[in-house]
Amino acid sequence: MNSTKTLLIAAGLLAAGLAAHSASAEDKATGKIEKCYGVSKAGKNDCGAKDSSHSCAGQAKKDSDPNEWIAVPAGLCDRLVGGVKAI
Fold first, then answer.
1. What burial class does residue 62 get, using C-beta atoms within 10 Å of its C-beta: 0-12 exposed, 13-18 middle, 19+ buried?
2. Strand-strand pairing, 69-73 and 33-37
3. Are 26 and 46 in a shared domain?
């Protein structure tokens, strides 16, 4: 009886892992991204600042600057502390 329970638990975990993997692969395949402001590290922004202080990637002067953005998969920005999507 213990081996049956163990097999059922293992099968459930395998199914859950496969479902999670296919969902993340689907997100990558769609390629939907959004600008997420306020979450980039200094020097790690993706492109120009919202306030036009510069126009190139990698020029953010401080961490979590609300004018700096990085491209993230759609829906991720809402889940990050301090993340604000482009308006």
1. exposed
2. antiparallel
3. no
Same domain, yes or no: 7 and 44: no
Q: What is the identity of the amino acid at 24?
A: S
Q: Token digits for 55?
A: 């126009």
The answer for 52, left when phi > 0, alpha when psi is -120 to 50, beta otherwise, is left
* pLDDT tens per residue, range 20-38: 554 455 555 568 999 999 9
CB 57 within 8 A of CB 87: no
- pTM for the full predicted model: 0.60
Q: Which domain holds residue 13?
A: 1-30
